Each structure stands twice: as structure tokens, then as C-alpha cells.
Amino acid sequence: MARDITTLLRQQAALAAFGSFAFQENDLSKILAEAARICAESLAVKFCKICRYREAENDLRVEAGYGWEDHVVGHVISKADESSPQGRAFITAEPVIILNLQEANDYNPPPFYEQHKIISTVDVIIKARSGPPFGILEIDSAEKHAYDKHDIDFLTGFANVLAEAVATADRNVQMRQMMGEMQRLIEEKDILLAEKHTLSQELQHRVRNNLQLVNGMLNDQLKQTQSEDERKGMRGIIRRVMGLAQVYDQLLGVGLSDRLDFGAYLTALCANLPELQPKPRFPIQLLCQVEELVLDLASVTALGLVAAELVSNSYEHAFPSNGGTVSVSVAPDGSADRGIMIVRDDGVGYIAALETKRHGVGLARRLMQQVNGTLDVTSDDGTIWSLRFPVSPIGGSLPATAVR
Prior knowledge:
Layout: H1 5-22, H2 28-42, E1 47-54, E2 59-66, E3 77-79, H3 85-92, E4 96-98, H4 112-115, E5 120-126, E6 135-141, H5 149-195, H6 200-225, H7 227-253, E7 259-261, H8 262-272, E8 284-290, E9 294-296, H9 297-317, E10 324-332, E11 338-345, H10 359-370, E12 374-379, E13 383-390
Parallel strand pairs: 8-10
Antiparallel strand pairs: 1-2, 1-6, 2-3, 4-5, 5-6, 7-9, 10-11, 11-13, 12-13
């Protein structure tokens, strides 16, 4: 289905705005409510809801929503099975699209669907870093509504950003609980000392031990949530959102084709990457040398994220004691059906044993698997990442106005 430029711009702005809001807000209920509102408005539907999975009950509870009557949010529950659209999306971990719920005889949704005259629904899963998924993100319409791949991609990308925001909010809640417990112990000590001065030594010993326990817990948590780590996490999310947003920018430049010049996209991406890095101790130069290489949107998005992660990895690890250069290049790999991207730096070299602590590298490997590509690394007078990937001939070439 042809895409409207205004719709794309609105969705791009909505994704960026939500990312900025979510990672500054500590109240999870406000994050979920804002996510429901933005999703509904971005996809021009009246209803949106976020269902949270409850493992003990094995069900999905409407945790936040937009457009629903008061009895829905916080009250409606559906089974985490295939009897409802959200249950099926949760069980299969795949998007569920229903154009006409009244004709979908294999579902037995909760009564509130009929009460709100819901016709069309789309459900996508909200993942979690560990354990069961957080739940489901669903948009609903009282009119028959057709959704295309771009809508599903937007909703899935939005759910992924929401999942990261939920994880951050959960960590903040844990931190506040620990701080509250420490404050409670201090207050308990003061009260008991005032009541029974003779117990002061015993109480001091008890409170000291409890505070040491809480302090140990805080230190473990701070390894993940201290300010610089949080900034790194934020930069990681912003890099990924920016990568997706850059796809939309390039789509507008080629008449919203389903294929893009990856070289032009990478040039635009590299122009923005230095601003997303922590301020380096020494000067670092980022160079980009590309040839035209037309790829499908999925490959452009995945490879763009890989480039962003590897460039960021070089900024963070390659130059601990001096400055240097990071370069990114892309070209055909000697044939019409393969391409190669090289990310190189002249820093201290790559140590594979540390890869578990360098999460961007792990993400890069997973993304290369998604596009049926390969990733190889050599470390000799710096680090060279060589990424080879298929170039599908299906879909035609770029419009003439987009050829560089």
C-alpha cells in the first residue's frame, strides 16, 4: 500500500518523542499510558491497550490503554492462550493481524471487544530481557482497517523500545525500594534507640549488618545503573531509534520505494553517529566511503544498526590512550549478489575474550544472522570488521532521481 509522507513523518516523530519521554520518566504507569496514546494516534485508530502477562495466573491484564471506557484498563483480563488475539500473539511471539474480528470464528475474545464494536486489531509482543515477555501491545479500530508492512514494522519497533523502557523503569523501582529499605532501617534504629537506650549496642550491631547487606545489594545494582552506564544504555537506544528514523528519511528521498541505496543511507547515518558517542578523551575521526548498493528495507535497517554498534564499539574501546580514525566502507563484494561492509579502526585491537561485556558486538552478530550474512574480525594494528551479506535482485532499482 502506498505510504503517505505525512504518516511516515508523524510515526518517525512519535517514535523519537516516546523514546525521549520514556527514558526520563520513572513512573511505569505513565510510560505505558503515553505509549498507548502515541500508538493510537500514530496509526490513526481510536483504541490501543497494553496487556501485562501475569505468570502466576497465566493471563494477560490490561495495564494501560487509550480510548477505552473506565471498566477496561486495570480490570479486563484474558487468558494467555489462543482464544483471544492478544493471547495468540503472546503464545506464538508473532504479530497477529485481524481485519474483521466478527468473521474470526476461531477466537473467543473478552466481551469488551463487542461493547466497543471492535472490528480490526493488531497485536505484537513486548519482550523482556529475561524470563517471559512483558506482555502485548495492541491497537484496535471500530472500523475495518487495513494494515501494511510499514505499520507492523512501526508497531514492532515501538514495542521493542517500550520493552527497553520497561526494563529501565523496573531497575529504577528496585533502586528506590532498596533506598527506601535503607531509610526504613535508619528510622527503625532511631526509634528503638529513643525507646530503649540500653539496647543501643545491640541495635547498632543489627542495623550495621542490615545496612551492609543493603549496601552490597546497592553496589551490585549500581554496576548496571550508575549514571555513566545509564548514559551508555540511553545512547544505545538512541542509536537504534536514529537508525530506524534514518530509514524513513531515505524512504522520503526515493519516493517511498521498498528498496534503498544503502551507501547513501550509511553516509547519512555516519554523519550523525559522532554526536551519540561519549565525549572522547582524545580526537577521533569518523570516515565514510561508500558505493551505491541497493538493498531491501530489512537489510538496510539491520546493517545500519550493525554499523552503528561497531562504530560505537570502536569509540568506546579502541582508543584508551590516544586518538585515531574509524572508517566505514561499503561496496559490492566482487559480484552482483553480494555486498561487503568494512568497519575499521587503528586503535589498540579487539580482544575476543571481552566480547561478553561488549553487548553491541553480540547484537551485531545476531543482526548479521537475520540477513543471512557473515561477520569476521581481524586485529592487527587495529581492528577490522568484515561483513558480507546477500544483495537480492528482486524489486527493481531505485528511481532515476535517487541514483548517486
